[in-house]
Amino acid sequence: MLRSVFRVVFAFMLLFLLALPASAAQTSSTDQDVPPAVQVVQDVGPAVVTVINEQTVQSFGTTSPELQPAGAGTGFIIDTDGHIVTNWHVVDGGEQFLVIFADGTRADAELIGSDPISDLAVVKVDGEVPGTVAFGDSSALLPGQPVLAIGSPLGTFSNTVTEGIVSAIGRNFPYTQQGPQVYTNLIQHDAAINAGNSGGPLLNMQGEVIGVNTLGIPSENGQPVQGLFFAIPSNSVKEITSELINTGKVVYPFVGVTYVPVTPSLAAQYDLDVDYGIYVAEVSPDSPAADAGIQQDDIILEFDGTKIDATNIFPVLLFQHKPGDDVEVVIHRDGEDSTVTITLSERP
Fold first, then answer.
1. CA-closest candidate to residue 215, choices 112, 58, 325, 89
2. Which residues on neighbouring strands pair with residue 212, listed in sequence order?
3. Which residue ranges form the domains of the chain, and what is each CATH number?
């Protein structure tokens, strides 16, 4: 009797389940999907490494100089040959280099080439690599697009993941050259990065590198700043790292002027009769600018037919050319405009 009751109940439950819609009778497959950010980290994480810069230093209490870690940053493996992209300032001054993979294993690395102007460098490890990551198209980025950063903040918290959005594109930080670097056309984002994140990848939700994290603004005039971080766009990174791998260096064109960008506010402050271009503060002797007759206090208004302003900044216009190119520039002097031709040379 009891067995018959169980048969009736089981049959009733089976009929009930068969009558339910498929979505109610089984768990939706989307509920079991891995979140996109988690999938990206799982796919890309093995290709992200910590780069250790080793230098010979005299430590307190030692009798002779020793090779010791002098700094750390982040890098990412771009091919099965073991090439790793990082920042120039991560490897600057290094005598030897060590790479720590995501699983904690270590390998010696060789410096292939570095470029202080772009703040990019390539090191290489031998043997099989745990993973690689591909470049995406940085020109397709839009403000508001979600991004991930993976790196080694403070050099110790390896493969730390932070999430944010693209805050803006085409940022110039600063507008003029500071030190050897020329930071132009940067991606601004708010995925937190700290010291040690330098050289790490900024990723889209397809797991592609769309930028290399290079700097942040922690404070301004003594006031703390939040969420202002910058990355070198991947399209620039691809071009520069390819040159570093092939030749060990990057060749840049050279004009030979020290300049200050002219803005409407600067023009108003100094009563200038033009509000765009670059003000020539100094001309290097025997430079292309000097040979073309450009003088101190000139204002260069156009470069190769393009107006120099906040949208078309001078370094970007210049780096579209190669040494040996003849470029027409429009200069403003004593209230009049004239056109001269500059033959670019190779940057010293």
1. 89
2. 201, 232
3. 42-124 (2.40.10.10), 138-247 (2.40.10.10), 253-346 (2.30.42.10)
What is the pTM assigned to this prediction? Answer: 0.80
Within 13 A of 28's CA, how many CA atoms are on the CB side? 5
**Residues recognised as catalytic:** 89, 119, 198
**Percent of the chain whose predicted confidence (pLDDT) is above 70:** 89
221-247 burial, b at 16+ Cβ within 10 Å, e below that, comes to: eeeeeeebbbbbbbbbbbebbebbbee
Whole-angstrom distance, CA of residue 207 vs CA of residue 38: 10
> What is d(CA 86, CA 78) in angstroms, rounded to the nearest whole number?
11
**What is the rounded CA–CA span in Å between residue 262 and residue 276?**
5
Instruction: Say if residues 230 and 240 touch (Cβ distance below 8 Å).
Output: no
- Does 69 sit behind a cis peptide bond, omega within 30 degrees of 0 on the bond before it? no
The confidence band for 346, taking pLDDT boundaries of 50, 70 and 90, is very high
Helix, strand, coil abundance in the chain, percent, nearest 5: 20, 35, 40
Q: Which of 29-38, 255-264, 275-284 has the lowest mean pLDDT?
A: 29-38
Q: CA-CA distances (angstroms) from residue 136 to 47, 150, 341?
A: 15, 16, 37
* Residues with Cβ within 8 Å of residue 269, at least 6 apart in sequence: none
Q: DSSP class of residue 93?
A: T
